[in-house]
């Protein structure tokens, strides 16, 4: 359960701090007293929280400074809308101010300096979609690029998994990756190549992680339709913590052989 004091606005925390510092509010704290400085819904849990702090050994004279520090921290935290952007693919209705999927993806590729991790389901028209990324790889030879892609066997295909992967890689290099450009690392889920349909699985996630700090999660595939024509919705986030969790998740799947390197 979230700490009640963290649910307060900085102005409410500062009001509590001033009241305690001046002696207008003191232990044992009462809901009626606290309600003078915060809204009625928050008064009871906030009162309980203040009482627990005093009971844990925090001196009443130390509470004002603690509340001021909480207020400063909350005030300096960027609002959610500054960290998250809504991204869409849709017909031009003239009524939205969302960022286009294809524009965002190109911007992400252009901005990569250290790493670009792409997790995608379907890839078509890849030479167009990946052009900006391939160019960036040429500009920055040290840029690490890894693609987690879905490799499926065609209906009725009984070839060995290694043959299906080899054919996929040949087609990918010939038709989906910009010609003459440095190739990325490619990983896949071996379960997608099971000969029995009931045992197959898809690598169905769709996201991009840039420099272990920027994350783009979207319904859009790496196709011209997904990037330009369909109705798709996604979010971009500036969050090193979330990016690290996603990277660790994928690395764990690789370490456990749930995902294998094809190229």
Describe it.
The structure is a single chain. Helices cover 43% and strands 16% of the residues. It has a nine-stranded mixed beta sheet, sandwiched between helices. The chain contains eleven helices and nine strands. The mean pLDDT is 92. The protein folds into two domains: 4-76; 80-261, Endonuclease Chain A (Endonuclease, Chain A), CATH 3.30.870.10. The relative contact order is 0.13. It starts with 9 loop residues before the first helix and ends with a strand. The longest helix has 16 residues, at 40-55. With 263 residues, the protein is of the alpha/beta class.
Question: What are the defining features of this structure?
Answer:
263 residues; alpha/beta; Endonuclease, Chain A; 2 domains; nine-stranded mixed beta sheet; 9 strands
Question: What's this model, at a glance?
Answer:
43% of the residues lie in helices and 16% in strands. It is of the alpha/beta class and 263 residues long.
Strand element count: 9
The CATH homologous superfamily of the largest domain is named Endonuclease Chain A
The CATH topology name of the largest domain reads Endonuclease, Chain A
User: What is the overall silhouette?
Assistant: elongated
- The CATH class of the largest domain is Alpha Beta
Shape-level CATH architecture of the largest domain = 2-Layer Sandwich
The helix count comes to: 11
Q: Give average pLDDT, whole number.
A: 92
Cα-atom radius of gyration: 26 Å
User: Biggest β-sheet, characterized?
Assistant: 9 strands, mixed
Low-confidence stretches: none
Instruction: Give the topology string: H per helix, E per strand.
Output: HHHHHEEHEHHEHEEEHEHE
